[in-house]
Amino acid sequence: MSQQERPDAERPDGVKGEGDHEAGRRYDEATRRFVESGRVGPAADAARTDDPSELADLERAEQAGRSRAKEEDPSARPGADEPGAGRPGSAGRMGGAGG
Description:
single chain
C-alpha cells in the first residue's frame, strides 16, 4: 500500500496524517503576534471597500451564509466585544425587551 493510500502513515519528513504540526504552530504564533501588535484594526480598515457593487456582493454572500447557519453566533454581532454585550439586560443585547 502506498503513502497516498494510507493517510495515517508517517511521511519521511515526520508529518503524520493530513497536517504539518510545525507549520500550524508557526501560523498560530505569527497570528498571535499580529493580533498583539495592534495592526488588526488598520489592516481591516485598509481591506474595507466603498465600491457599491462589491458591498452588495459581500452582503449577498453574508446573507447566504447566515441562511444556512443553525443559529447566529452572538460574538459576531456588532459591539459584541464591548463589556456586557450579549448579556440579559445589557446595552449590547440585540432583541428581547427594549431591543
